[in-house]
Fold this protein.
Amino acid sequence: MVLPSAWLDQMFYPLVLLVSALWLSELVSQWKACQRRKPSAAAGKTGKTRPEPSDVASTSAGPSPHSASSPTFSESSKEEDAWDDSSSLCELGPFAWCWAGRQPDLNDELQRTDREIIEMKFGYPRSEIYSLDFYPINEDIKALVEVAVRDASKRQDVEQKLRQFRRLSEDLPGSGWVQPKDPRVLLRFLLARQCNVERAFQMLQSVLTWRQQNGAANALPLWNKVKHERFDFYWKSFGCTGLDRDGDPVVFERVGQLDVPGLVKCHPDFIRQHCIYNAECVFSSLEILRRRCLKQDSHRGFQCTVVVDMTGLNLSFMDRHALTLCQLVSRVEADNYPEALKRVIVVRAPWIFPAIWQICKPFFDKGTLEKVSIVKESEMTEVLLRHIPVENVPKALGGRLVSGRGDDYCSTIIAPGGKIPEDIIAMTHST
């Protein structure tokens, strides 16, 4: 369903008024907190204008087991950097958090000085993802359904309809990962249409037509990937850190770190293409994992666990153009790349999140919304470790995973986002 711009107008302005009081209250609270952290004139005279390393060490939870292999940043230096960021924002006044665009991130210096390709963003080397040759695999349907369908009472019906769907689709041509003779591919379409074979067949035909019109099958082998690899650092800001406790991929996404004003300045056609590029990489990665699992008589890798970190979410996400962009991306993915999500765990949702979520909900299918859970800060680590091994959770979220650089959010795997440089924005407008 594509919502008219008039609907966005009607929803946007009332909600802005609705959250204004909360926004001002939050800004005042943050300002007061900043003032408490800001060094006083008396402190300056005594020579202590920032927390000493010993002060930080005395309040830390203890050394990381990975600290010996993380020489780039020490725990104390990261705390000092964060202290400096808070002090500088205090000097801007009570609207600093809004003017800054997003809350300070400890990876900002990394983003400014070391922008490069996130090679392992999708779990495998990009060369392997780009060169993958798709073909139908005669996977055991019963075993596949047992893995993909959690409700045991529905498995027999799903299996029967999947076999019917396969007979109906066997003469359709393949296009990249969309192989109509492959039961795993067909199961995605069947589940996306609530096991209605006729509707699933119509969706499959529609996707094949869409792929031909948009050249999606050529995205990985033929498109100019240099542009997309450069843009990948900023959007989409996610990365695959390993497998969850079921043996399926786990992805961490830093939505709150997106440069929304920068994104809306990019050419919409490029944004659409980059969305396709990312989705094709994800499905290629899933196929690589599937083939490796099948060699071990496993049928895992059908769907992903996605953890969405909302730290840094702000009013720029409620911009009309940003909402239009969200609608565009969500429809491309939901309509043409079905059933890649097993569960979505939203963490660190700030005060403004409920208002933004209410606006964005209509952009997503009911089945997708049912997979979303919003977790309180106090329960975050417990919930994450219930589904994901601690070694595959970034240290910043309570796990043990750190990058070779020593940053707690594994920026060598998880694209950090951040402000999009003007030359990158200009690149999206070039042919």
